[in-house]
Predict the structure of Lactose phosphotransferase system repressor.
Amino acid sequence: MLTAERRQYILNMLHRDGKIVARRLSEELGLSEDTIRRDLRDLAEDGKLVRVHGGALPSSPATANFTARQEQAPQAKEAIAQAAAAMVRAGQVIFLDGGTTNLLVAQHLMPDLQVTVITNSPPVAVALAEHPRADVLLLGGQLLKHSIVTVGTATLEAISMVRADLYFLGICSLHPDMGISTNHLEEAYLKRAMVERSAEVIALVSPEKLNTASSYRIGPLTELSEIITEREVAEELLAPYRNLGITVTRV
């Protein structure tokens, strides 16, 4: 089997099984584990997968910049955002971090809703600038241009002073083994802090982010109160999340 054929075989297996176990694959193909690990390393460098101890997991599609991600799964994100916005009750304090789905949540908050929104996303803050009754706290810090969010020590310090009712967690990756993860270390710290300061954590997950992994772990799936995803997602894909006691809502 040629190198290109072998690597395509790996990607096909990853898509089918949701993970690669290097030892098992080396036995199946009659190749050394070093060869398989080299393939996994090169595929990871190309962004095709994420290496983990003993093998690999599917990579998140959320590697594009903010503008490009607005074109990904627009119908799913719209439905998810509407469902999330309908959960917010008058007088609540909510965390709404960065991401294209969370921007849609901000746009769908009812105009007569009295709510306090704490965000590290300038686009979210701008979207709420004309909201008649929303108080908006924009967290300061260093601007991460790729995702258009603020990160850093100042951001974390402000979060530590808040106790939120809800946190709508913009998701890069969810995986039954890896948990909740993201592509940027500073964002992982920030999301971890918001999780710790929130009574409920709602993950807004477009289907292509389920069963994928990114480089920086935010925490275990058990940190989530609920997952909201698209109606068309197969039940067998959601079963591992339900088995952990997480409410899963398809919209």
User: Anything to note?
Assistant: The CA atoms of residues 128 and 167 lie 17 Å apart. The first helix runs from residue 3 to 17.
